[in-house]
Automatic annotation (TrEMBL):
InterPro entries: RHD3/Sey1, Sey1/RHD3-like_3HB. One of its GO terms (biological process) is endoplasmic reticulum membrane fusion. The keyword Metal-binding does not apply. Keywords: Membrane, Transmembrane, Transmembrane helix. Signal peptide: none annotated. Pfam families: Sey1_3HB. It comes from the Eukaryota. This is Sey1/RHD3-like three-helix bundle domain-containing protein. The keyword GTP-binding does not apply.
Length: 314
C-alpha cells in the first residue's frame, strides 16, 4: 500500500508543482487527502483478517498516512533543488512564444518590456510556490514579499530604518513558516533571482536587437531631418524643374524605369538577407533585367505596326 500511494502521488505532485499557481498547494492537499484516504481504507480492510490488536492497527494506518506526507515533501524538495532550471524554462516559454504557443517574430510591434515583466512574474510565482511546504492551510505572505522585493520597483528607504525593513529578503526564515517546512529561504530566493535575471538578460537583449534590426530593414525613408534638409537645399532645383517641362518628362521616364527595375529586381526582399549578399545578387541580375525591360518596350512599340503591314499586304 505504501508503493501504491507513492505511485499515486509522485507524478501528479510533480506536475502540480511544475504548473505553479495559486491553486497548486490546495490541489496537492486535496490530492494527498483523497489518495491517503483510499490507501488507508484499503489497508484497513486488508489487515482486518489478521486479528491484530487495536494499537498495532492504528500504528500501521498512521505509518501509511505519514508515508503519503513524506512522498509529497520529498518530491517538493526535489523540485526546489532544481528551481533555477524551472524558472528559466518558464521564462523562455512565455517570452519566446505567444499565446498560441507559436514562436515570436520580433517585427517591431511587440512590447518587449511588458512581455519580459509577464514572463518574470510567472517565474517569480514558481519561486514563491516552491519556497515552502504548505500541507496545512496556514496562511503566509511569501508571494507578496517576493512580489514587492523582486518584481515591483524598489522604493528607497530612509537611513534610520533597519536592514530588515529596507530589504524584506534579508532573513533566513519566512514569517509564519516553520523552519522544517522551509524549502528556499528569503536570502536564497534573492540570490536565485539575481542569478535568474543575469542568465535571462541575454535573451531579452537579443530580442531588442532583432526588433531594432527589423525596424531598420523595413524603414527605407531617410530620417525627418534629412527630408527637411533636402526640401530647403533643393528648393531652387525644384523650381527649375517646374519651369522646364522637359525636365519633368525626363524625370517621369526615369521614375517609370526605376520603378520597373525595383519590381523586377525585388530590391526590398534582397536587402533583407544582408547588404553584401544583396549587392552580389543584384549585380548578377542587373544587366538581364535591363535587357528584359528594353525587349518588352521594343515588343510593345512594334505591336501596333504589325496590323498596319497586314492591311497593306491585303
Amino acid at each position: 500500500y505504501e508503493g501504491k500511494l507513492t505511485k499515486a502521488l509522485a507524478e501528479p505532485v510533480e506536475a502540480l508543482l511544475d504548473s505553479a499557481s495559486e491553486d497548486t498547494w490546495p490541489a496537492i492537499r486535496k490530492l494527498l487527502q483523497r489518495e491517503t484516504t483510499a490507501a488507508v481504507s484499503g489497508l484497513e480492510s486488508a489487515i482486518s483478517t489478521f486479528e491484530l490488536d487495536e494499537a498495532t492497527e492504528k500504528e500501521l494506518l498512521l505509518r501509511l498516512e505519514n508515508h503519503g506526507r513524506s512522498v509529497v515533501e520529498s518530491k517538493a524538495r526535489e523540485e526546489a533543488a532544481r528551481i533555477l532550471i524551472r524558472m528559466k524554462d518558464r521564462f523562455s516559454t512565455l517570452f519566446s512564444r505567444d499565446a498560441d504557443s507559436m514562436p515570436r517574430v520580433w517585427t517591431g510591434k511587440e512590447d518587449i518590456k511588458a512581455i519580459t515583466k509577464t514572463a518574470r512574474s510567472a517565474s517569480m510565482k514558481l519561486l514563491s510556490t516552491m519556497a515552502a511546504i504548505r500541507l496545512e492551510e496556514d496562511g503566509d505572505n511569501i508571494d507578496t514579499t517576493l512580489s514587492l522585493a523582486l518584481v515591483d520597483a524598489a522604493r528607497p528607504g530612509t537611513t534610520d530604518r533597519s536592514i530588515q525593513s529596507l530589504d524584506p529578503l534579508a532573513s533566513s526564515s519566512w514569517e509564519r513558516v516553520p523552519e522544517e517546512r522551509t524549502l528556499i529561504s528569503p536570502v536564497q530566493c534573492k540570490s536565485l533571482w539575481r542569478q535568474f535575471k543575469a542568465e535571462t538578460e541575454y535573451t531579452v537583449t537579443q530580442a531588442i536587437a532583432a526588433q531594432e534590426a527589423n525596424k531598420r530593414n523595413n524603414n527605407w525613408l531617410p530620417p525627418p531631418w534629412a527630408l527637411a534638409a533636402m526640401a530647403v537645399l533643393g528648393f531652387n532645383e525644384f523650381m527649375t524643374l517646374l519651369r522646364n517641362p522637359f525636365y519633368l518628362a525626363v524625370m517621369f521616364v526615369v521614375f517609370l524605369v526605376g520603378k520597373a527595375m525595383w519590381v523586377q529586381l525585388d530590391i526590398a526582399n534582397e536587402f533583407r538577407n544582408g547588404f553584401l549578399p544583396a549587392l552580389l545578387s543584384l549585380s548578377t541580375k542587373f544587366v538581364p533585367t535591363i535587357m528584359n525591360i528594353l525587349k518588352r518596350l521594343a515588343d510593345e512599340g512594334a505591336a501596333p505596326a504589325a496590323p498596319e503591314r497586314q492591311r497593306e499586304t491585303e
